[in-house]
Amino acid sequence: MINMGPQHPSTHGVFRMVMAVDGEVVVDVEPHIGYLHRGSEKLAENELYVQVVTLFDRLDYISNLNNEMVFCRTVEKLMDLAIPERAEYLRIILCELNRVASHLLFVGTFGLDTGAMTPVMYTFREREKIQTMFEMVTGARMMHNYIRIGGVKNDVPKDFHRRMQDLISELRQGIDEADRLLSFNEIFLARTKGIGTITAEKAINYGMSGPSLRASGVPMDIRKDEPYSLYDRFDFGIPIGENGDSWDRYYVRVEEMRQSLKIIEQAMEQISDGPTITSTRLVLRPPKGEVYVRGENPRGELGVYLVSDGTDKPYRVKVRPPSFCNLMALKELIKDTYIADSVVILGSLDIVLGEVDR
Amino acid sequence: MLGNLKGLGVTIRTLFRKPVTYQYPEEPKPIEERYMGFPVLTWDEKVGEPYCTGCMVCVRYCPTNCMSAVMKDNPLHPEGKSTRRKIVDTFEINLARCIVCGICVDVCNFDAIEMSHEHELSKYVRNGNRADLGQLLEMGKEYQQEVSWVSKKDKKSEEES
Amino acid sequence: MSLLDILKTVSAVMGVLTVLSVVVLSLTLLERKFIGRIQMRRGPNRVGPFGILQPVADAVKLVAKEDILPSWVDRGVYWVSPLVVFVPTFMIWVTIPVARDLVIRNMEMGLFYIIAFSVLSIVGLVSAGWASANKYAVIGGFRAAAQLVSYEIPIILSVLAIAMLAQSLNLEKIVDAQASLPYIFIQPLGAFLFFCAGLAELGRTPFDIHPAESEVVGGPYVEYSGAHWSVFFLAEYINTFAIAALVTLLFLGGWLFPGLPGNVAVTGVLVFLIKTYMVVLVIFWFRGTYPRLRIDQLMTLGWKILVPLAFLNVVITAVALFYGFPAIILGLISISILIGTFWVISIRMRTAPKPVYTVRLYDPTLEVLDAR
């Protein structure tokens, strides 16, 4: 029995795997989670809706704006609120930019898991540019608290368009560079091809979603199946893998970054002037009821189930985190692989412990 | 092996690029205008008192309960020098607990609290991050000078006229 | 031996020891700064101007660390293993000529002596793992030993081919024989083999699964801390410099440079140092670029690809010498075999002629599936 303890040398947060090993081959694995449990769902029962947005920021702490957006859409659906169009466009632009940032972090740390120490520096350099853009628009590099119920907090500054055009071209170059360094490197291919394969049927049975599911060949993407918030006005493709191994999970995310940049370009052309927030009171009292809304996070499908009893604080907020459900497939994926591959497989699932433990 | 050789080409090209390090603390990274640092209290130059009236709306809306305030009667009001009936007596923010979410700024009716550009938390005392009214007003004055701060009410009256 | 001879030898040995220590310390700093530049950042630059005093800081830190000695280790073996790893690496430097006649003792069988001593340090690694009385350290030590032993064979065979070309095992004669054309043009296959196998001998990326085994289980060094570990650390860097020096001597022409006289000591040393540092920079460049190979992939690479290629190298050298082909024909055959191997590997891993994408774009609004 080998214990890969709560603190990994490679990232992913505090996660413990106890593996039963026969020689060099892993026979069974038992993941232990809960080291990052902060009680977000219970805390949310005691906070106003404006304050719950700050809690959702910190769930999946790498793609903050996507989480905020799902929660705000949940409350707006419960209250039947209409959002101004400019606010929708801004939300989509920032969410897609956050998706690029999240996948850049994945590419870097996945390279680190296999042993390559330079792609991390390149992708974090690009991520730094994105975070500077976020700082310019929202005021914070990570926990933005920008997407509010009814729209966004305030309008973008005046040089947003120009800086965004520069940023998009720089990001394209950065993604191509990290791609050329890592993706078709023979050593990287030998390390990730054929490792941790999962078939489409098993993946659906385990409840996986997001890029990990699409790498197995299942063309499911919430932005295309049930388009929410103006996604049906953009023309983009979704990358589908063939084999469902670690390389496919990695390359699907690289291609998704390029498609996100395409969406951002189209949104920048289509955006028009207008108000950015409807006049809602800060203390909302949604009608009694319950609603479930899902959105496409960079890691998969984030679902929020909200029960409201008419007061200004939610009665129950339940979060369906994508990383938690993706992690359920770990036992299946790690069976009959080597110890050194287990790190690679865990890295390719792209989990964030803030989501898994909430 | 072609992929390997291309990878070598990429690294040799980045060898000749300028490094992107900022040599902190001699060369700190430039901060954007909207950066949300710690909340500070603003000072009204014309009247000579803080904008804050101690109404405690921000204290109630803070998600982490990091602030506390006490209000008192404004001595300048009966003299007619100021339009504020009450003024803040003590105000304390525990900067180590603040999550810089900016909700306090959104709910304030008097433009009294602003997010400064201050973000460095290291102190020599263990609980040195509990900022009281004097410290907050001092940081606020620095922020106001740095940004040439105009309160939202004044900005609106300027735009209308 | 007269007293003068003994004094000369002793002073030469002390000289080599000091110069080597300085060079190796500079290598640690050079590595960090070079890899930093590859990653678009500066290396260490706080300690001393341009970080020159960083190795001093590292040495002080390592010596000042507490030497934790677990109570269940085998004391004698534990203390002796670092020495067993360290001493042979210094012994190699007795016969490496830095310029003509600038060597402690130039032996007729210099190359043989070097190979024999480089194998000795493997014993030290195994005993380090064994002495730690930690089952993961033992496994790690055995794995490291397997890797190092299996990569000795390509080294020996490529060195054999060089010795056949130069008709001698004496290092100075080998360098002299390269006066017309350095051996890298005549035997590019041999150079590549020696370089790759040398990287694997050192335990450097992409073959560094045994130091990086601390990712999952501890490697053989897990129970060593502080000053003990610094001995292993220094031994690795001295080995790196030794392999780079061997590559320079055997394949790049040692201290010879077209146009410069081969007899002057100062220019010889300078040329030698420049060439060796270039090779060392190439080793660091590989470290910055590549991910690591898994242990079984490493052994597959060694036994299934490098060893047959090494045998092929010896055979074509023998054939060329027997039939008296001019050197250039041998060079052409060698480089065509090398390019052929690269091509076959690319086709098997599906990165050439065009990379094979198993990910395609799918747009459900169109009826046709977009293929890349």
Keywords:
heterotrimer, B: 161 residues, alpha+beta, Alpha-Beta Plaits, three-stranded antiparallel beta sheet, two-stranded antiparallel ribbon, 5 helices, 17% strand, C: 372 residues, mainly alpha, 2 domains, disordered C terminus
Question: Can you give me a brief rundown of this structure?
Answer:
The complex is a heterotrimer of chains A (358), B (161) and C (372). Helices cover 49% and strands 14% of the residues of chain A.
Please give a structural write-up.
The complex is a heterotrimer of chains A (358), B (161) and C (372). Chain A has 358 residues and is an alpha+beta fold. Chain A has 15 helices and nine strands. Chain A has a single domain (48-329), classed as Cytochrome-c3 Hydrogenase, chain B (Orthogonal Bundle), CATH 1.10.645.10. In chain A, 49% of the residues lie in helices and 14% in strands. In chain A, the strands form three sheets. Chain A has a three-stranded antiparallel beta sheet with strand order 1-2-3. In chain A, helix 2 runs antiparallel to helix 3 and helix 6 packs antiparallel against helix 11 (246-270). With 161 residues, chain B is α+β, with helices and mostly antiparallel strands. Chain B contains five helices and seven strands, in the order αβββαββαββαα. Chain B has helices at 2-15, 57-61, 103-107, 133-147, 152-160, and strands at residues 39-41, 43-44, 49-50, 67-73, 86-94, 113-115, 130-131. In chain B, the strands form three sheets. A three-stranded antiparallel beta sheet of chain B has the order 4-5-7. In chain B, a hairpin with a 4-residue loop joins strand 2 (43-44) and strand 3 (49-50). In chain B, 29% of the residues are buried. By secondary structure, chain C is mainly alpha-helical. Helices cover 66% and strands 1% of the residues of chain C. Chain C has 13 helices and one strand. Chain C has helices at 3-38, 54-64, 75-92, 110-131, 135-150, 152-166, 171-177, 183-186, 188-202, 227-252, 265-289, 295-323, 327-348; one strand at residues 359-362. In chain C, helix 1 (3-38) crosses helix 10 and helix 9 (188-202) packs across helix 13 (327-348). Chains in contact: A-B, A-C, B-C. At the A-C interface, helix 5, helix 7, strand 6, helix 11 and helix 14 of A face helix 11, helix 12 and strand 1 of C. Strand 6 (238-241) of chain A pairs antiparallel with strand 1 (359-362) of chain C.
